[in-house]
Amino acid sequence: MQTSERIHFEAVVVDLHCDTLQDLQAGKRTLVPSGPQEGHIDLPRLKAGGVDVQVFALYIAPEMAGRGYQRAVELIEAFHREIQHNREAIGHARTVEEIESLLQQGKVAAVLAVENGDALEGRVENLDHLYAQGVRMLSLTWNHANALADGAREQVHGGLTPLGKDVIERMDELGMVLDVSHLSEQAFWQALEVAKGPVVATHSNAAALAPHPRNLTDEQLRAIAARGGVVGVNFYPEFLGRGDATVESVLEHITYMARVMGVDHVALGSDFDGISKTPAGLEDVSKVPAITRGLLARGYTEEEVKKILGRNALRVFREVWRH
Ligand SMILES: [Zn+2]
Question: What pLDDT is recorded for position 275?
């Protein structure tokens, strides 16, 4: 086995964001397809790509906002159906101990995260209900402004709302990871003032390389690092700043972020199944070993590669999921 293959499959690889659950909930496909491959993520390709921990987003689309909680529950139910059908190969993890136990059994560990606080329908109690159902991370917004905060593409509140502040405080108490991807810059800074622990941007890139409202400035990257958090590099060509993105474009963002933030604060957040285009050489999750090959070719040590692949993300989970 080549060194890069050995390192990749030895490492705990964590992907901080995918949108696969929507297809599964809609009945468009399953985690183990019987027909031709569709989308970017399924169980055979998670295995082929050596991805051990997959965060599944409960994405609340803007048109679902009025029934966001019900929508989150529908997605959770679809998640459990899939896990139940494939329990020899994947399990739901709510703690780092559960992640470790699943990995020891050779299974994929699946983590639930809300993308868009519209899932709360304006009620902090719904955060507790989602936590009780195993949700361990939440982004306050998607691109639009909502009752909690302004989004990357719509600013109406001047940042965070009082309810958004209450939600962050409750997340701190529960031990949930605050995902700052999709926030407006103003809401980002206000959220960091309220949050006590490390925060994560699960799927955002460096604005210095690709100016885009979904990406983060150097100051934002450094602030996340100073709090002990991580940023998951997003594979979407538009956020990489290149229509003709390749694996190299992803490696450019990783290298830039590692320089600005330190190698302890860079992670992966593919956005697979939520993106309409992928970089050449990273067409789906089975291609993730290309990142390890590329990092080693760029002179990263085995230790550094393993941090980026998953150790950094696990460190944050361990710190925030206290219970
Ligand atoms: Zn997103």
Answer: 97
CA–centroid distance, 226 to ligand 1, in Å, is: 23
pLDDT above 80 (res 323): no
CA 58–ligand 1 middle distance (angstroms): 10
SS3 for 206? strand
Phi, psi of 46 (to 5 degrees): -60, -45
Q: Which residue matches tokens 């599944």? A: 56
Ligand 1 centre to CA of 182 (Å) is 7
pLDDT tens column, 3-15? 999 999 999 999 9
Q: Does pTM surpass 0.90? A: yes
**pLDDT at residue number 293:** 98
Sign of CA dihedral 102, 305, 176, 71: negative
Q: Name the DSSP class of 107.
A: P
Cα-to-centroid distance, 105 and ligand 1 (Å): 31
Segment (H or E) for 253 = helix 247-261
User: Please, are residues 290 and 281 in contact by the beta-carbon 8 Å criterion?
Assistant: yes
Cα of 141 to ligand 1 centre, how many Å? 9
Task: Please tell me the distance between residue 274's alpha carbon and the centre of ligand 1 in angstroms.
Answer: 7
Residue 234 CA to ligand 1 center (angstroms) comes to 9
CA of 193 from ligand 1 middle (Å) equals 23
User: Which domains does the chain show, CATH number per domain?
Assistant: 3-320 (3.20.20.140)
